[in-house]
């Protein structure tokens, strides 16, 4: 069974069998990004010759910890199937295809966004899939690109197709780029077999290139959820982290109900906090535990979120047991 583990501050604390790892996410601060060779060496020391797709995600900080970086892994007995494309690797396990994050430093924002989608399409082709197999995308851009962000809509429409299934998606703002000149980096997950879009009737998604959630077999990959009213499309609970968290968690459960699931089916949450949310964030723990008692949680601090009013964005993964 595929297992999602919470981020820990350093590879030495992973405590997993390297041969079972199918994906690694490195949440890295500016201090860690200044020495990427150190990160590569630490990963090699922990995993040895076991090759895995790596997502390197710049963050402002690890919530509740002053570590320069933290590592979250996904495991599956035996490590699934290795798929290679030059230096890039993918792993397929339990019907899910885990990809590395991608970025380029050439071109403007939209050019780079298009390149990222095209690179993901090329990687998926190595697994016998196309972009119609995507179940989630998460893009990381700088706050300065917020006004430009709608420009990614055209390459998404052209490269992700008309649907009816589009991936769940999240957009996170981080002001330290993964590499100098990179305006965007993109994470993606795909799946084999038939996919089902989950939407509790929210019309705003009819014209978007992402859906509230996608079911692939027994897994449900949800989009990033902020405190946005799905009817009025207005941000709510300004300056109120507890109010935003409660709204987000109820919205997640509303979407899960479309698959006959509840918050108890959520196995993993990634929570992106803005700096303004850090002080109050510990107060949301009890609420989160009530809604998602079986979830492991990775919490990191981003620079901002696409809606300036947002203090929190939550990206959940669920398994139907």
Task: Give a nutshell description of this structure.
The protein contains six helices and 19 strands. The protein has helices at residues 30-33, 36-47, 109-126, 153-160, 241-256, 285-291; strands at residues 3-4, 21-28, 54-58, 61-62, 69-75, 81-85, 88-93, 96-98, 102-103, 134-141, 168-173, 184-191, 195-198, 213-216, 219-222, 266-273, 296-301, 304-305, 312-319.
Q: Radius of gyration from the CA trace?
A: 18 Å
Count of helix runs: 6
Count of strand segments: 19
First and last CA, distance: 11 Å
Please write the CATH class name: Alpha Beta
Helix content: 10-25%
Examine the coordinates and then state which fold CATH places here, giving the name of the CATH topology.
Answer: 60s Ribosomal Protein L30, Chain: A
Average pLDDT level = 96
CATH architecture: 2-Layer Sandwich
Describe this protein's structure.
The protein has 321 residues and is of the alpha+beta class. It has one domain: 60s Ribosomal Protein L30, Chain: A (2-Layer Sandwich), CATH 3.30.1330. The protein has 6 helices and 19 strands. Strands 6, 7, 8, 9, 10, 11, 12 and 18 form an 8-stranded mixed beta sheet that branches. Strands 4-17-16-19-15-14-13 form a 7-stranded mixed beta sheet, with helices on one face. Strand 7 and strand 8 (96-98) form a beta hairpin. The longest helix has 18 residues, at 109-126. The chain is globular, with a radius of gyration of 18 Å. The mean pLDDT is 96. Keywords: Hydrolase. GO terms for molecular function: hydrolase activity. It is an enzyme of class 3 (hydrolase). Its EC number is 3.5.-.-. This is RidA family protein.
